[in-house]
Amino acid sequence: MKRTVTDKMRRANRANALHSTGPSTERGKAVSSLNGVTHGLYAKRQEVEINDGIVRRVQDYLRRHAPRPKITDKLYDTGNVRMLDEHLRAALAGEIILDYGPPGTQKTFLFEYRRAEAAKKSATPEILYVRCSPAMSPRALLIHVALEVGAFSRGSRDTLMANILLKLQARRKPAALLVDEAHLLKGQYVTIETLRELADRARLGMVIAGHNDLEEIFREGLAMMEQWVSRIDRRHRLPGLSESEARAIATEELGQMPKAALDALVSFCGVKDVRTRKSYCSMRRLVKRVAQIRARKFGA
To answer: Is the C-alpha dihedral spanning 88, 89, 94, 96 positive or negative?
Structure first.
């Protein structure tokens, strides 16, 4: 049964409330403000003050003891690998290159592979790798770059930029930044401009790679990113794996196969480029299929 609150009861409640004013100290008020918090995952503001000195020491410790990137798979000598390696060397010389193409053309794998190689050779690798995410903000981009160069990754966008520039200027050898999945920055013109500012101020060469949409982003967004026109030294569309390359890789891994079986394997790896409507072999599908066949054939 619903209880009725009379006017007399309401006046009495209000009078009683005046005798309890809640916490009076700043600390008490801060604690009571969290009375309704359960986990804080959706909090709009940070409630805990973090000492920058502590954060810096934690980051330094994690950087010193972080596991090195591992090379887990084999890198095959294909036309795309040779082209991307050439672009990487050009980026180390200060060029900015735009590489775009359909999925399965070895962009991400090669970038991660070369990044892992560089990390094994030096504590300050010359190859820096950043993987973009949807709606990536300028600050989020700079945090990723800061972590790559070993800079303090806390603070405003301008502070992060300054920290990164100091680290890059202190290097004895030039570095190159590999920006992967850059097509996910579609519409994020401020983030793309931040990338251009970093290239200008640090004299940093870059390979910016992504799917076919990447070329459209830079072509259609030139009205808002006019300064990129004179920054990009090369634009290159990466083709898919050719049938002859797919056959050579399959034969190298599985040995000689009957022609019908090899044809079936290559056909299975074929996909259609949604932009050009042409078919190509996907390296991702080929490697996966070869692994399945090896497991059945050799039990490994």
So the answer is: negative
